[in-house]
Amino acid sequence: MLHPPKLAVATEYGNAASFWVEYPAGLIDLSRTAHLPKVALQDGETEQAQSVQDVPVPPLQPATQLDIPVDGDRVIRIAKKHSAIVIVDMQNYFLHPDIRDHPTGLACVIPLMNLVPALRAHGVKILWVNWGLTEHELTTIPPSLTRGFKKGGRGGFGSVLPGDFGRLLMRGEYNSELYGPLQALYEEGRREGTDVWIHKNRMSGLWGPQTALGLYLQEQGITTLFFAGVNADQCVLGTLVDAYSKGYDCIVVEDCVATTSPPGGLENVLYNASRSYGFVTDSSRITDAATCQK
Prior knowledge:
alpha/beta, elongated
């Protein structure tokens, strides 16, 4: 994939309250801590000093910031306390071999098992965003979603699955739990106060003005989101696009997303994540950065 060349001059994007700064060296500062210098105009207004090519890159503050390499020969700088990873739908219903064949989804488990502790160690919040319906929500789901989860006109949300899996994507059921070791990983983080379970009732966790995920992000002052989970071009993408539209910084963790869609589905997500919505990296680059910058 071709990426744009590095900038010739430092450039600031956004507004006074929410902004990024990109430097010619390739650093993109998402921490919203240091504006570029301003120059005075004749009418008393100010503007960015675009002509200044030697604006120094602010030094990393390891206690509060983390520098992470991303695709395109860039490095992003995040504010740890304002960052979270959104892990979408890594649930038994989507991953358990007794329900479906999803080898690429299962391949995300080990990278997540390594990534989550590394982010926890730096104070990045771990958000497990999952389907988890109530009886009332069954009466409010639109027909497009209802039809999509039925097979041949049968089953669907709330229906009883074979074996001990329980009712389809209802809260508290085994099929709605995280797959395999991920459930224990979440329980560990819940006890430590680092991980939060957030229910959703649509493909996107941010589809409305006051979803559980949206309210949590606002309350915690989160601005930067890493994305992981399944399916990359469905629930992950839905949440990603809504986050992008709401002004969050969006970073897809490539080896922690997967889909059952035909070839091209995942590639499209990664292409647009890197070229439009934000950035793409992988778990190894994040964990390496987290280890080196303790």
